[in-house]
From TrEMBL, chains A, B:
Residues 1-90 form the HTH arsR-type domain. This is Autorepressor SdpR family transcription factor. Pfam families: HTH_5. Signal peptide: none annotated. The keyword Coiled coil does not apply.
DNA sequence: TAAATAATTAAACAAATATTTAAATATAAA
DNA sequence: TTTATATTTAAATATTTGTTTAATTATTTA
């Protein structure tokens, strides 16, 4: 659980996630988007992977990254009680 | 924006938020829930406040903390594109 | 007004994090 | 089979973060 929150705490990692909503991308293409070294991006990708926010598959010499639903489901599950808290109308009288 | 993600990155702060779904609580009552000094909790409350995830009002010598919708709305807004990404059925054919 | 209570702010420090450069691994092309 | 390309792993380091103890502020009660 912790790892998902850690993963989305970083602005670069959030941008990577946003970039991947455009579709699968290989590591180099992702790295090009940022003014940062490849090893740094590689580290961010690793963390996002650990959090199950992304996944990858090997295509020849390339690693192609995609969004992974399960990490996002964790966030959604955590968020749910607060949605209920704010959206459920509070009873005005004690029953 | 960043501050909200920073705020929810810490497990103690997430527990504080969860605790506040039970209703408004003063700082001392919150601190009692944790095996941690009051100054530490006070610092966590300050961060949650900065992130607009909580708010407080003074009641005599007590500070009463409550959940604040606006921080949660920021999270929801960030999450929205991913909801769309995963839940929108992808067209199987190119139109 | 003096003492007690509720809570924060400040200073110090250990642990965690993001970044870089350099080295390593794996695949493809010449 | 050598060279180039894509990417990761490792080591080093500066910055950020969470915690504690000590000091401070504000309010209540005796």
């Amino acid at each position: 659980m912790d790892i998902v929150f850690k993963a989305i705490n970083d602005p670069t990692r959030r941008e990577i996630l946003r970039f991947l909503t455009h579709g699968p991308q290989n590591a180099g293409t992702i790295a090009q988007q940022f003014n940062m070294t490849k090893p740094s991006i590689s580290h961010h990708l690793d963390l996002l992977k650990q959090a199950q926010l992304i996944d990858f598959s090997k295509k020849g010499q390339f690693l192609v990254y995609t969004l992974n639903k399960s990490g996002f489901e964790s966030i959604h599950a955590w968020f749910q009680p607060f949605t209920l808290f704010f959206e459920l109308p509070k009873p005005k009288i004690r029953l």
